[in-house]
Amino acid sequence: MKTDSTYLFGLVGEKITASLSPSLFTWAMAKAGIHGSYAIYDFPRRMARSLIVQSTSEWTGLNVTSPHKDLAFELCDEWSDRAQAVQSVNALTKREGRICGDNTDIAGFKFALQRRMKNRSVPELALIIGTGGAARSCIFGCRELYPEMELHVATRRTGVAADRLASLELPSSDLSILTHSKALRYLHEYDLVIQATPVGHVSCAGYPLRPPLNFRSGALVIDLIYSPGKTLFLEAAEAFEAEIENGLVMLISQGAECFQAWTGCRFPMEDAMSQLLPEFQKK
Questions:
Q1: Are 90 and 65 in contact (CB under 8 A)?
Q2: What is the pLDDT of residues 192-249, one digit of tens each?
């Protein structure tokens, strides 16, 4: 385990000043009785590249968010199996001068989804909106949890999406790729809808699918965005009496994996759900 003074964590992405990751890691370090810092690197691609690869950087671990997850994947010297499977990296570690990439989004998403599915039947038909790093992690997580579920992916560019998804090492590859207009047409039929694009964030207002929206009553609708706490997409789903979930639980659970890997300290997940999550929900 590293000495307290060497824990230097950070988040690299764009338009991320509202991130709760610094609060998450500060809380976890206090619980573990260790000291360190967590910085926000709101950087464009060129600066993000320099931060990641410069040997003079003394960071212990870096979280990576939109739009740099694919860049982080490209810059790694080695990858975990799950990062390789979805070709997306959201967690970086240095080992003997080598940059190692991991994907904790998969485990974070699975934890959040299973938490909400405890009293629900297994979904038969699901829609994931987007094909970026977060969306691919959700696709992989859904396939691991529910291999028999019919899974559709909505994208603006079906040709590009088909090429991107074809190269993934998915537990099952039977995905249907839909245009946004076709996804809208069948939106009311989905048991599970996962919104995995940046659209709806405080820095990117709007709807990922063009209204009017028509959700199935009782469906579970998850938006990975947590700022704002309830996006326009989730508000629309709630109006149709769908169950809704934002990205806060996924944020905490994927961060927990990073914290444990980087520090060797146990992350108190039960305390996080009972203490930290309610505080985050107030923000």
A1: yes
A2: 999 999 999 999 999 999 999 999 999 999 999 999 999 999 999 999 999 999 999 9
Helix, strand, coil percentages in the chain from 3-state DSSP, rounded to 5:
40, 20, 40
Which of the following is catalytic: 2, 15, 31, 69?
69
Q: Is the pLDDT of residue 1 over 60?
A: no
Distance CA(204)–CA(164), nearest Å, equals: 24
Q: 63, 64, 91, 61: which is closest to 79 by C-alpha?
A: 91
Please indicate whether residue 69 is annotated as part of the active site. yes
Q: Could you read off the pLDDT of 42-59 as tens digits, one per residue?
A: 999 999 999 998 755 678
Angle at which helix 105-116 crosses helix 248-263, to 10 degrees, equals: 130
64 C-beta neighbours (distance < 10 Å), count: 28
Helix residue ranges, H only, 225-276: 232-239, 248-263, 269-271
155 SS3 class: strand
Our CA angle for 164, 170, 171, nearest 5°, is 165
Q: What is residue 171's DSSP assignment?
A: S
Contact partners, residue 141, CB within 8 Å, separation at least 6: 106, 107, 109, 110, 113
